[in-house]
Amino acid sequence: MLGRALSLLFWLFLALSSAILYPIALLIWASTALFDRRRVLLHRFTCFWASLYTWCNPVWRVRIEGREKIRPDAAYVMVANHQSLLDVLVLFRLFAHFKWVSKVENFRIPFIGWNMYLNRYIKLQRGSRDSVARMMRQCEVALAEGNSIMMFPEGTRSADGNLQAFKAGAFTLAQRAGAPVLPIVVEGTAAALPKRGFVLRGRHRIRVRVLDEIDVHTFAGKPADLVADEVRERFAVALGVPRSRGVDHGRRVDHGRAISSGGLTERKLT
Known about the structure:
Elements: H1 2-32, H2 40-55, E1 60-65, E2 77-80, H3 86-92, E3 98-103, H4 112-118, E4 122-124, H5 129-144, E5 148-151, H6 169-177, E6 181-187, H7 189-192, E7 204-210, H8 224-239, E8 257-259, E9 266-268
Parallel strand pairs: 1-7, 2-5, 2-6, 3-4, 3-5
Antiparallel strand pairs: 6-7, 8-9
Helix pairs in contact: 1-2, 1-4, 2-3, 5-6, 6-8
């Protein structure tokens, strides 16, 4: 009962604070939109907004490692493993500039979703080939403008916290845009808030680790699904996942095909 009561307080705090902070975001957008076309200042405020919920929660001890590896002048395809809703909050703790790729339903959430629109984050309609193609074009434009892109290559949250197979969409994007890939490993969020349910699960240590970037020239000529497997292996090593697990937690992708970052729409590359 105590856990449910504390969880209710957390979600109420999130809802009420979002209603208070959204007008500030709207003011920042209105006053900076003409000269800050990339929405750098608004995104920085959004990082602060999202970070409040881990800063103010005494049972979550969040540690960020490797932030210094993020070059401020680089436009990356950032890829992170996806264990929990909390992943989004803790990745904002990087205070690095990027555009999220997120399912369209998230943009409909009052205050939070409206702020996503203001930030020009990129929408994806699951199951729609047209949406995937549009998302890829928007990502390429954003990268060309100097923005990094943040994606979850597993496509969806892991049901049990285990690392799933990586889809090829993020790596296809990196190859097309000539952008380096930046792997970011998230640990501990699945235990704090599992995929199914909204009840917080007590005291947990959460860690976000930025790994070394992967230069596009090292994988430019490879099939994107092979690159996805190789990058997943880096995550597996960082997380201590036994090699015998391979990619059993997700679907393999045939060579010559790409799958969207949402992991739901498949299309030919040729």
